């Protein structure tokens, strides 16, 4: 089964505000872009992924991620993350005849292609499914079969909400890279320990230099 992924990304100047104690205003937008580039590059390399649509109004991120091969969908209708994801899922189904659709966070800089493939292959057994984040309270991936609406409910505490709204929680070992979202400095250290993609490695190196 081949999936279309929708990857939401805030304007870079606003993204990853909880990393402000780790990366200052001059470095944080570049770090957020690097996370998204490594996430999207790993997703596009996955054999279970047909295409990737990044949901963003950020012009620089749009250009850089389109250069990797992603499509860009406008952040509409202006009602926040979940409204944007629902709109994007409908858009890619209409425009690309997409079948199964998955929402994947843009802050997974350690994402490994083979681990994403395992998660998507397991998700294909269910009408709707989700993967909890590393912290165990949020969600990094939500899937919907071709006949299902995505019905996203991302945001703080989304694991419980996605379960309550009928998505099946995926229980898989050794898919840490798909679960390791980066919200805080500790999350960034955990992702670096797993091994991040090249753009995040370079951006994190600038961070360490700036800290000296
Ligand atoms: N397109 C779009 N993406 C969003 C929006 N809000 C959050 N996102 C993205 O959704 C994903 C999960 O959000 P968070 O983990 O909270 O990331 P964040 O909002 O950059 O982080 P904080 O500023 O620390 O809350 C990230 O990929 C964000 O870029 C939104 O309103 N529109
Ligand atoms: C948007 C989410 O991420 P976070 O909790 O990292 O903001 C989520 O887990 O649903």
From TrEMBL:
Its EC number is 2.7.7.105. InterPro entries: CofC, Nucleotide-diphossugar_trans. Pathway: Cofactor biosynthesis; coenzyme F420 biosynthesis. The keyword Metal-binding does not apply. Pfam families: CofC. GO terms for molecular function: GTP binding; phospholactate guanylyltransferase activity. It comes from the Bacteria. Gene3D superfamilies: Spore Coat Polysaccharide Biosynthesis Protein SpsA, Chain A (3.90.550.10). One of its GO terms (biological process) is F420-0 metabolic process. It catalyses: phosphoenolpyruvate + GTP + H(+) = enolpyruvoyl-2-diphospho-5'-guanosine + diphosphate. Keywords: GTP-binding, Nucleotide-binding, Nucleotidyltransferase, Transferase. Phosphoenolpyruvate binds at residues 139, 155, 158. The keyword GTP-binding applies. Belongs to the CofC family. Guanylyltransferase that catalyzes the activation of phosphoenolpyruvate (PEP) as enolpyruvoyl-2-diphospho-5'-guanosine, via the condensation of PEP with GTP. It is involved in the biosynthesis of coenzyme F420, a hydride carrier cofactor. This is Phosphoenolpyruvate guanylyltransferase. It comes from Streptomyces prasinopilosus. The gene is fbiD.
């Amino acid at each position: 089964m081949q999936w279309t992924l929708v990857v939401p990304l805030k304007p870079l100047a606003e993204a990853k505000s909880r990393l402000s104690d780790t990366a200052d205003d001059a470095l944080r937008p570049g770090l957020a872009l690097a996370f998204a580039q490594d996430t999207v590059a790993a997703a596009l390399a996955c054999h279970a992924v047909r295409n990737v649509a990044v949901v963003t109004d950020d012009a620089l991120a749009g250009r850089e991620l389109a250069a990797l091969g992603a499509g860009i969908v406008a952040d509409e209708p202006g009602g926040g993350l979940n409204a944007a994801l629902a709109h994007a899922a409908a858009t890619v189904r209409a425009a690309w005849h997409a079948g199964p659709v998955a929402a994947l966070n843009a802050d997974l800089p350690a994402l490994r292609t083979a681990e994403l493939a395992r998660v998507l292959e397991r998700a294909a057994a269910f009408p709707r499914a989700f993967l909890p984040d590393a912290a165990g309270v949020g969600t990094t991936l939500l899937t919907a079969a071709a006949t299902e609406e995505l019905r996203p409910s991302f945001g703080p505490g989304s694991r419980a909400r996605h379960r309550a709204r009928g998505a099946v929680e995926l229980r898989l070992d050794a898919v840490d890279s798909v679960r390791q979202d980066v919200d805080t400095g500790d999350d960034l250290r955990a992702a670096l320990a797993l091994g991040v993609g090249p753009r995040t490695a370079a951006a994190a190196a600038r961070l360490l230099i700036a800290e000296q």
